[in-house]
Amino acid sequence: MNKAAGGGGGGGGPTAAAAAAAAQKQKTLLQRADTDVTNIVDNFNQLVNLARVNDPPVRNSQEAFQMEIRAARMVQAAESLRNLVSELKQTAIFSGFGSLNENVDRRIAEFNRLEEGSERLLERVGEQAAASLKELEAHYYSSVLRTSPSEGP
């Protein structure tokens, strides 16, 4: 926020400085969200990996301690995400909704393009699988091993 008040730099005026500050804040918030989600997923994976039953009681105690640590890290990351959501809500309330709506619309359009690409890819894979299956069936039904009876001793 101090960037906009400082009036520094490029002659773009306060709106350019505010837009730059908003873009930087959005980038920071997205990085925080990515980091927190990654931490939750990584710690959950480690927690699941540690949740095995082993024979030596010492090892089980060590694993239990590691599980407690992983669970605590998951809680910290979840609290960080909760704080991030709270900060985003405050930002949405106290700033213009126009830029947020534009960003949401842009992301929706991006996801729609990705969805269409994924659907085309799935259709192609399905067609290729069907063609391969037909080829394999034709090969199987024309196979000598299938048509000739096996003779025993």
What characteristics describe this protein?
85% helix, Med22, transcription regulation, disordered N terminus, mainly alpha, 2 domains, flat, 153 residues
Topology:
Layout: H1 2-6, H2 13-50, H3 57-94, H4 97-141, H5 144-147
Would you mind describing this structure in some detail?
InterPro entries: Med22. Residues 1-24 are annotated as: Disordered. Residues 1-14 have a biased composition (Gly residues). It is found in: Nucleus. Pfam families: Med22. This protein has five helices and no strands. The chain has helices at residues 2-6, 13-50, 57-94, 97-141, 144-147. It is mainly alpha-helical and 153 residues long. It has two domains: 27-95; 96-146. It is 85% helix and 0% strand. Helix 2 runs antiparallel to helix 3 (57-94). The longest helix is centred in the last third of the chain and has 45 residues, at 97-141. The radius of gyration is 28 Å and the shape is flat. The protein starts with a helix and ends in a 6-residue tail after the last helix.
